[in-house]
Design goal:
By secondary structure, this protein is an all-alpha fold. Helices cover about 50% and strands about 0% of the residues.
């Protein structure tokens, strides 16, 4: 076993396994880049609101399920307006068409 390690030690060059100044420089550049990324991330995280709920006026929640189906004030008027036809102009007869239209 000692003979194999002696043979391998004789064959390996001197600078195998040693890091050079380029490795140190690369490690320092990466550490500086990570520091800037962490700093940027913390500033972005501070800007996030604590909740994402939309800001709306307070809505009343009914106490019982029956209150969901009771008509609210003004609901009858809204129902009649919803059911009413929404015509902008009265329907036209075939004789009232302008002469320039093709009728399609």
């Amino acid at each position: 076993m000692i003979e194999i390690s002696a043979v391998l030690a004789e064959q390996a060059p001197e600078d195998v396994g040693k890091s050079g100044p380029l490795g140190l420089l690369l490690t320092l550049v990466l550490l500086i880049a990570v520091a800037f990324l962490v700093r940027s991330m913390t500033t972005h995280l501070k800007r996030i609101p604590s909740t994402f709920d939309p800001v709306e006026p307070h809505q009343e929640v009914p106490d019982t399920p029956a209150e969901l189906f009771e008509p609210q004030p003004g609901e009858e008027l809204l129902d009649t307006l919803r059911k009413a036809p929404r015509a902008i102009e009265p329907p036209r007869d075939d004789d009232d068409r302008p002469s320039g239209s093709s009728g399609r």
